[in-house]
Amino acid sequence: MTTNLxxxxxxxxxxxxxxxxxxxYFSSITAIPRLEWQRVQPTDNLFLQRDYLxxxxxxxxxxxxxxxxxxxxxxxxxGLAVLQLQHIRASESLGCEQSRTEAHRSPCFFTAYxxxxxxxxxxxxEFNTMVCGNLLLTGEHGWYFKPPELRxxxxxxxxxxxxxxxKREIERQGLLLSAMLVKDYYPERRPGGQMLVxxxxxxxxxxxxxxLKLRPEWRGFDDYLGAFSSxxxxxxxxxxxxxxxxxxxxxxxxQMRHYEGEMxxxxxxxxxxxxxxxxxxxxxxxxxxxxxxxxxxxxYAYFLEDKLVAFYTSIANGAEMEAHFLGFDKxxxxxxQIYLNILYDLVRGAIDGQHDRLVFARTAMEIKSSVGAExxxxxxxxxxxxxxxxxxxHPLFDYLKPREDDWKPRHPFK
Length: 414
Description:
alpha+beta; Aminopeptidase; 16 strands
């Protein structure tokens, strides 16, 4: 029955500049026959696959809407793009309320004044933004072209043309968009991003993606620890000792339902102090992932005397393991080294799962580097509809970019 639906599906195509290629716009994933999307979705990126996108659309972050693009060549789907519509306010994303409090406490006048000025500017920076990518993740999870010849500059040109088409469709529905954002390009894909710069997008970076490359000789967690210098082995053993009172348990679906409210509160206590946060997670999102993606999604909890004090989640995404959302009791973090133990446990899970890379994502760069993660700059591209404002975007984002003055990369391996 589904096959018949797909075979009779006739998308409304907008012609693009490449000969024979058009794009179809959809305001919901449910408007696209399942097999139509699956015909072109990548097999090695779960975050562009139908099952994950349904979870996200059904349990969106606060204020987020979605749109989708399918690229066709002679009525055969050859590419896709995922768009998120989000109102972005710099003061909320960059944690300026916390910075304002710190400014009042700062003994240095210039430090306090600098933070005040950043808050003043950030409170005036807000966009209704169309994002090609995923604000819940770090990495290239916004678009995919199946034919190799469309994965370079030609594909980027088609992507920009299609986004302008999507913008017109969205604004016909009554939502005025101030900006378009394409995120995140790894350094090796940056040359493709220059096509966006030629189309008046501004290139910028925020905090880097922290990624641990797993070595083939690490057949177990002890091999990983054995690669540490003595200083970092001692540090790891100290963290294990402090966390000895914690009982770790992988949660079943039923247990996640039971602890859902407590987990969300632990998540919020961490997210509100992360320093860079574009979204407010839906309280049912993690549970829905467990329901829809039971083989790929895992959730682990830490208990202290039968009280839930921390949790973390991970998603197996082909050769990568994605460290997803987490939460912990900040009052117990120092005494039990909760966060550091979570990082070590994520590494253990990635090694046991025989992944090539563990993606820790942004924030907390120094402590992540202490377990072996390396900082990778991710390039983003933003264009504002107002030409004057667009010229100010780059220096403004550079000024508002979260900075950690004491961020020092650590090198734990011998």
